[in-house]
């Protein structure tokens, strides 16, 4: 397929053409193996913490192997985001500034069954003209036809109606990619996690980025602390959402332009 590129050689024109025609793009050799190793090192501990809460709150069914909201002060997330992977492409797709909507993880094993294996798209409101969300998968283990590589129905980002399962299975293509690759895709595209037939885990990070006026899945600035936001560089402040906060008091609302919680360049 003509939607796979070497990350450092790919042009913006490559991205525009592929994302329009297929709805998804694969960038090979994008992330160095040292960072990939740092990400996977703490995956199991992060999962056990989140799984305990899922079970405690009675929502464990159909959520095996899922890890949500992995942006923390002392893990890999800040370093990952600071690298600005696909920054040019995301800005182009969304038409300017953007923020993190969610940073989640998946551990796909032979025994696991979760909602990500259902045919779905990552937005509930379809919009073919106004682009407001784009997704990124970071491949932590090789994606193969045997271990559950994600299935994408190319071109379906232009279709509002969910495809029938028979049609999807017949025409969807799996995103075969090596560890360290990045998969970018239009949030409108219909896709599904594959089934892992092997004995090994197939892990991945899934990140969503939106225009700043879209509500985040998780209030990352409040979770990390507003003072923490003053210590990081401007690119991280922007991506994490510090420039698109919602005031929670009149004191926070009535501020001079330069110190307002929602900045004027956020759309």
The fourth-level CATH homologous superfamily is q2cbj1_9rhob like domain
Structural class: alpha+beta
Taking pLDDT < 50 over at least 5 consecutive residues as the criterion, the unreliable ranges are none
Q: What count of structural domains?
A: 1
The beta-strand count equals: 10
Name of the level-1 CATH class: Mainly Beta
The percent range for helix content is: 25-40%
Major sheet strand order: 1-2-8-5-10-4-3
Encode the helix/strand succession as letters.
Answer: EHEHHEHHEEEHEEEEHHHH
Q: Roughly what fraction of the amino acids lie in strands?
A: 15-25%
Major sheet: size, sense and barrel closure? 7 strands, mixed
**Which term fits the overall shape?**
globular
Radius of gyration, whole Å: 19 Å
- What would the average pLDDT be, to the nearest integer? 94
The CATH architecture would be Sandwich
The total of helices stands at 10
Quote the CATH topology: Jelly Rolls
Assembly type of the chains comes to single chain
N-end to C-end Cα span? 35 Å
């Amino acid at each position: 397929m003509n939607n796979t590129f070497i990350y450092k050689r790919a042009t913006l024109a490559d991205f525009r053409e592929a994302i329009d025609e297929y709805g998804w793009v694969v960038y090979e050799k994008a992330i160095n193996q040292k960072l990939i190793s740092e990400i996977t090192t703490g995956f199991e501990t992060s999962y056990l913490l989140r799984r305990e809460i899922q079970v405690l709150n009675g929502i464990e069914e159909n959520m095996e192997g899922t890890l949500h909201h992995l942006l923390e002060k002392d893990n890999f997330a800040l370093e990952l985001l600071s690298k600005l992977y696909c920054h040019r492409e995301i800005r182009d797709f969304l038409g300017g500034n953007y923020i993190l909507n969610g940073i989640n993880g998946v551990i796909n094993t032979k025994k696991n069954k979760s909602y990500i294996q259902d045919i779905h798209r990552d937005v509930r409101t379809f919009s073919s003209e106004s682009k407001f969300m784009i997704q990124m998968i970071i491949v932590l283990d090789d994606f193969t036809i045997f271990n559950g590589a994600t299935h994408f129905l190319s071109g379906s980002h232009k279709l509002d109606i969910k495809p029938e399962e028979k049609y999807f299975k017949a025409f969807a293509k799996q995103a075969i990619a090596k560890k360290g690759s990045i998969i970018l895709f239009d949030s409108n595209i219909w896709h599904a996690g594959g089934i892992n037939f092997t004995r090994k885990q197939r892990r991945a990070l899934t990140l969503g980025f939106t225009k700043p006026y879209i509500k985040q899945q998780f209030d990352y600035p409040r979770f990390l602390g507003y003072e923490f936001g003053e210590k990081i560089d401007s690119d991280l402040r922007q991506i994490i959402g510090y420039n698109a906060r919602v005031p929670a008091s009149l004191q926070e609302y009535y501020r001079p332009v330069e110190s307002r919680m929602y900045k004027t360049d956020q759309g």
